[in-house]
């Protein structure tokens, strides 16, 4: 039985492209939502300066200037939408601003849209590397209460 709606998390990586390909090959849905979650530059700068121990300067972006991170997210999302359509999916584009973490933005969007399945690519990290770098896909799997298709990287 086909699902009504799937959410495909897309960040432009080769693993995300692979996930779209697998979704097109193995899943059917009336609608596929290609989601690119993004973090505003102000928050990225604050997080990075906090990690480095450097005092963050008072930086308030001008309202008239669109956030470069949002511009990048829209471009990445357009690419994902195109790939989903090439994979035979009836897809629509969506971006989500992350207020906390990228994985949380994905889970919140899945809940808002009430999707039947989430599709995401993984980096395939294991061991110490996996401990040092948290995986968005793994966090989605742990915190989401919906089926998740995780597509590992190719060989």
From TrEMBL:
Domain of life of the source: Bacteria
UspA domain ranges (all copies): 4-152
CDD domains: USP-like (cd00293)
Gene3D superfamilies: HUPs
Family membership noted in the UniProt record: Belongs to the universal stress protein A family.
Classification via PANTHER family: STRESS RESPONSE PROTEIN NHAX (PTHR46268), UNIVERSAL STRESS PROTEIN HP_0031 (PTHR46268:SF15)
Protein name (record): Universal stress protein
